[in-house]
Amino acid sequence: MLKMARIGILAALAALILAFGLTNAEAQRGQAGQNGQAPGQRQGGMQRGAFTPDRMWEFTGPRIKENLGVSDDEWSVIEPLVKDVSTKQMATRMRGMGGMGGMRGGARRPGGPGAEADDNTPKEIKELRDVLDNENATSAEIKTKLAAYRALVKKQQDELKAAQEKLVKVLTPRQEAALVLSGMLE
């Protein structure tokens, strides 16, 4: 039971680490020249942005494998499916992080209103943020961008559900239960 709880904790921790890395990237970029480091580097020489979903998987993947109690052969089948679910869950969870920044007068992004969002941010999110930053945006413009955003959310949720269903097909009931308790499956 404790092992299953650790999977959930690891998933939450991984999401927080990724969120922290994304939200602090600009702040660290600004600090780099102030502490003698080359721009774009963290202490120890690690390149800013080096903590990616793939690097995170290096830490969480082996723990999930251990907690599921699978052999290497079983893991070769299960791992890509678990990773796909994990990636899709992270995308759905991270989608809204920082989205309330528009309520602070556009201060959520460096440069204020109109500043570019992360290159990996879906177009629908960028456009909704931009229309919210525009004090002259009409209700019709906001409704159009909100509808596009909601369509993105629905698409992401459908993709996550399909990935979860695909994963369940290769799991034993015990493995499925462990992933349900961890929050990876419903």
How do the helices and strands line up, and which of them pair or pack?
Layout: H1 2-32, H2 53-68, H3 72-94, H4 123-133, H5 139-168, H6 173-182
Distance between the termini: 17 Å
Count of structural domains: 1
> Can you summarize the main beta sheet?
none
Q: Report mean pLDDT, rounded to a whole number.
A: 73
Using only CA atoms, what is the Rg? 19 Å
| Shape category | elongated
The helix tally amounts to: 6
How many strands in all?
A: 0
Order of secondary-structure elements: HHHHHH
The helicity comes to 55-70%
Q: Which blocks of ≥5 consecutive residues have pLDDT under 50?
A: 15-46, 98-117
Category from helices, strands and their pairing: mainly alpha
Please state roughly what percent of the residues sit in beta strands, choosing from under 5%, 5-15%, 15-25%, 25-35%, 35-45% or over 45%.
under 5%
Short description:
With 186 residues, the protein is an all-alpha fold. It contains six helices and no strands.
What does this protein look like?
The protein is mainly alpha-helical. The chain has one domain (2-182). The protein is built from 6 helices and no strands. It has helices spanning 2-32, 53-68, 72-94, 123-133, 139-168, 173-182. α3 runs antiparallel to α5. It is elongated. The relative contact order is 0.14. Residues 15-46 and 98-117 have low confidence and may be disordered.
Essential attributes:
single chain, mainly alpha, 186 residues, 0% strand, 65% helix, elongated, 6 helices
